[in-house]
Amino acid sequence: MRHGKILTGALALLVVLTGCAGAGAEDPAFTPASGGASATPTPVQIRDLHDQFTNDRTRAEKECYGQSVTVRAVVLKTGASEYGTPTIEASDVRNGTHLASIVLPYDDRRAESFRRLESVKTGQEIAATATCNVFVDRNSILIFKNAEIVE
User: Which residues form the signal peptide (predicted)?
Assistant: First the structure.
């Protein structure tokens, strides 16, 4: 598990990327924090991670693709995606821009995932741990798969 800080202007946000290989290794604004496996992760804000992909996609892909990350986001919409998967469309603010699609498990847990979505409401702030899967160019959206809503 990796821990770190991202400085945004004068505001320091504690960020934990759970497993993003090398996250922040070359960025002085991203410094490792102490804590072991038992430390409770503080999720990265979805806007901060989205900005990392838009500002330096190559680096963000190298550090995060295929890795588990815990993100904090605001729910825009829940339901079946265009592919029929249980999905949360998310932003950094209520009624904001669609920054990420957080896809819950759709294997043998598909029915359970859709039931879980029923408890998630539009405008609700959530934290989810998921695999960072892809950044879609056509609409600038991060896709997370196999998500577990942790709060």
Answer: 1-25
- Domains of the chain are 4-149 (2.40.50.140)
pTM of the model: 0.75
Q: Which residues touch 72 (CB under 8 Å, ≥6 apart)?
A: 43, 44, 45, 46, 125, 126, 127
**Burial letters 20-35, b for 16+ CB under 10 A, else e:** beebbeeeeebeeeee
Q: Considering only CA atoms, which of 79, 90, 76, 84 is closest in space to residue 107?
A: 84
Let me know how long the chain is.
151
Residue 42 amino acid letter: T
Token representation of residue 1 = 């598990």
78-91 pLDDT, tens digit per residue, is 999 999 999 999 99
Number of other residues whose CB lies within 10 A of the CB of residue 77: 13
H-run or E-run covering 9? none
